[in-house]
Amino acid sequence: MVAAREICKDRIWIDGCFDFAHHGHAGAMLQARQLGKSLYVGVHSDEEILENKGPVVMTLSERVLAVTACKWATEAVPNAPYVTDPAVMDDYGCFFVVHGDDITTDANGEDCYRVVKEAGRFLIVKRTPNISTTDLVGRMLLCAKNHHLKTIASSSEIAGVVDSARLGKRVDERQWITNESLEKFSAYATAEDGKNKWAGVYMWTPDTLTTITEPSAELMSRRTKMIYVDGGYDLFFAGHIEFLKLVSERAERLSQETGAEVGIVVGIHDDATVNAFKGLNYPIMNIFERALCVLQCKYVSHVILQAPYSPTRRFLEKLPWEIVAVMHGPTAFSNKVESDPYSEVKKIGLYGSIPDHQYKDISTETIVERVTRNRGVYEERQKRKGWKADAEKELKRKDEQMQKQ
Prior knowledge:
The protein contains 16 helices and twelve strands. By secondary structure, the protein is α/β, with parallel strands linked by helices. Strands 7-6-10-9-8-11-12 form a seven-stranded mixed sheet. Strand 11, helix 14 and strand 12 form a beta-alpha-beta unit. The longest helix has 30 residues.
């Protein structure tokens, strides 16, 4: 039990399963944070989720780690009740709870927010479409690749695509840089308040770095030195987050030693590159989804889309910061890698490694294996979700009718 705090309308509560650190969850936290000055995030227990929704893929500790790493979250609250309890909100001084514009039901088919709605303590934000834990589990079970996105091949192509997107036009139906995606990048690049400009988003095409989202002048002047890390960051799981946390601690030590603030820039490989090395239908999340997951992480200063598999000296010299280190974690390279992608940075003394950590054995493959190993259970969960969706639509219809009266 926490000490009682003064209840304030600018201290916001949000709760959920947060199974997978996908950008839909981050988007809900972003919108909630924009409504107040602090955000407390309740994370349901594995047992309550199993009872009310079905089995989780990520454990409670993994889910709490992901929420804690979100830059818009003030504090993660483990074991929050599945049916939102105003008494728990009171403990954290939160007057309002925020939820998306859908209905969530418990095991009995009742609205999980019925009590707070009746108390006038419920706020609605827009649910992020086309992404959910159910969607991701479905991709794993179906082994489809139709979510993969086209690589943008040249600087002239990206310039044309971005210009067209800002005018609300689309050069190619397969093109994923749209006005909507540019708005998403800008939103997820905001600072801890969810409002002010902060991080930068860039895209690498052979020999050229193009700015997609302009970072704040303050960030660029404060952090002129960067540690560079790269990878696929598929499913953005606990291993990724713990690695970035440890790199952040290394950056903090370098800042103290040099007197200059050091940040982290993350290079993210395109879908074709990840698939070439991983095979099957990897990545499970496409590059747009993976970039938003990384961008919402509080340890990250900037993101580079379509980063090269091997960070060469020439590539690093094209970046607008001084790269003081290139770091890699305990993850082994794919057996399809013919040569060490970090051989060049090792020769010039920039390479550094992060040692083993408690989540080192988790990978995209082990997470997919969690699902496929219990395929029958998760297929039943998918069916149950479909049944609950029909009941939740009916509850939403009744909710909307009541609001009109």
